[in-house]
Design a protein that fits this description.
The chain is α+β, with helices and mostly antiparallel strands and 247 residues long. Helices cover 44% and strands 14% of the residues. It starts with a helix and ends in a 10-residue tail after the last helix. The C terminus is likely disordered. The structure holds zinc ion (ZN). Zinc ion binds next to loops.
Length: 247
């Protein structure tokens, strides 16, 4: 139980008494039940609501993200409500943005407060009053995620962001020898961008970034992005980016 203790399971269950723990195969954790929250945001005021949710917590949490499903069908399963169309899980934001938010308070309650509640607040407001989804400008889907990463990295182009993600999937020592994603023309190891990239290594494991990278490669993005990706794929083919790096 020490893993669950580190996640703050007891605190979570006392903060959200409608939620219960269900056994699952492996080391993942499943939380299910009525998730009641109160939140207040700017001019939109205080709001209290409850949704029936199933939250799957991966073993690697807080360095991997929970997936959340709403079980009562109150939230329409559409893009407009930021529902992922592949598995109808809630799209709470770009994955890296969420990992960063969780890293500030790496517990189940931290995730609930910083990632889940803001989304549910926005959805609840929209269900009550219509209009646009608050925080709706938040990245949605793969194209949104890449745009958001570009922003988080402080880079200028999709190709640069893709390279940064690829480098995060490699050992530091190897990535440092490659040309810097910021296009300064130097090796990553001698550019100040190295320091910025290093902070992202704390958020997730190399494996996570490798998966994110291949998800981008496989996803159906707009033309500009697809072009960027074939560029990256070409780099992979030419051995300038090695996807089969050994651990
Ligand atoms: Zn650089």
């Amino acid at each position: 139980m020490s893993m669950y203790a580190a996640m703050g399971l007891t605190q979570f269950l006392s903060n959200y008494p409608g939620m219960d723990v269900y056994p699952v195969r492996g080391s993942d954790l499943r939380l299910e039940g009525v998730f009641t929250f109160s939140a207040e945001w700017k001019d939109y005021g205080l709001l209290t609501d409850a949704f029936t949710l199933r939250i799957n917590i991966p073993e690697l949490f807080p360095k991997a993200l929970p997936t959340v499903h709403e079980l009562d069908g109150r939230i329409p399963r559409t893009q407009e409500y930021h529902i992922n169309q592949d598995d109808y899980s809630l799209c709470l934001g770009s994955p890296l943005r969420l990992l960063k938010a969780i890293s500030v308070e790496p517990t189940l309650s931290g995730f609930s407060k910083r990632c889940l509640t803001p989304y549910l607040y926005a959805v609840s407001r929209k269900l009550l009053q219509g209009g646009e989804l608050l925080f709706g400008e938040l990245a949605h889907g793969q194209p949104g995620a890449l745009a958001d990463y570009l922003n988080m990295f402080g880079l200028g182009t999709n190709i640069q962001a893709m390279r940064a993600i690829r480098y995060l999937g490699m050992k530091k020592r190897l990535a440092n020898k490659l040309s810097c994603p910021c296009d300064c023309g130097r090796r990553l190891g001698v550019c100040t961008f190295n320091r910025r990239l290093r902070s992202f290594r704390l958020l997730a494991q190399r494996n996570w970034y490798r998966k994110a990278f291949s998800n981008f490669l496989e996803s159906n993005l707009d033309k500009g992005c697809t072009r960027s990706f074939s560029y990256v794929e070409q780099m992979v083919r030419e051995g300038r980016l090695n996807l089969d790096e050994r651990e």
